[in-house]
Amino acid sequence: MEPPAPPGKEVRCPRCGTWDTRPSQQRHVLMDMLMTIFQREPRRCRVCGRRFYSCGMPKHANAD
Ligand SMILES: [Zn+2]
């Protein structure tokens, strides 16, 4: 049984699977800019320290 994602922590760590992630500091400026264009947010896991990009597509109703 998967616990529901806590509010504001909808991003899960791809490595250890915890929901306890936070927005990462902007370090790789160019890469982060590029990822922002693709609506991916740099994040870091608080548990294992993994830095990754969320698949942060905007949550709007998409019928197709
Ligand atoms: Zn992790």
Structural write-up:
With 64 residues, the chain is α+β, with helices and mostly antiparallel strands. The chain has a domain at 21-53. It has one helix and three strands, in the order E-H-E-E. The protein has a three-stranded antiparallel β-sheet. It is elongated. The N and C termini lie far apart (29 Å). The model has no long low-confidence stretch (mean pLDDT 77). Zinc ion binds at residues 13, 15-16, 18, 45, 47-48, 50.
| Main structural class | alpha+beta
* Topology order in helix (H) and strand (E) letters: EHEE
Rg, nearest Å: 13 Å
- Quote the beta fraction: 15-25%
Described by the principal axes of the CA atoms, the overall outline is elongated
Bound molecules: zinc ion
Mean pLDDT: 77
Compute the number of strand runs: 3
List the total number of helices.
Answer: 1
Distance linking N and C termini? 29 Å
Measured as a percent range, the helix fraction is 10-25%
Q: What order do the strands of the largest sheet run in, or round the barrel if closed?
A: 1-2-3
Which stretches of 5+ consecutive residues score pLDDT under 50? none
Main sheet properties = 3 strands, antiparallel
Annotation keywords:
alpha+beta, 16% strand, elongated, 64 residues, binds zinc ion
Can I get a quick summary?
By secondary structure, the chain is α+β, with helices and mostly antiparallel strands. The protein has one helix and three strands; from the N terminus they run E-H-E-E. The protein has a three-stranded antiparallel β-sheet with strand order 1-2-3.
Reconstruct the topology from this structure.
Elements: E1 21-23, H1 29-37, E2 42-45, E3 51-53
Antiparallel strand pairs: 1-2, 2-3
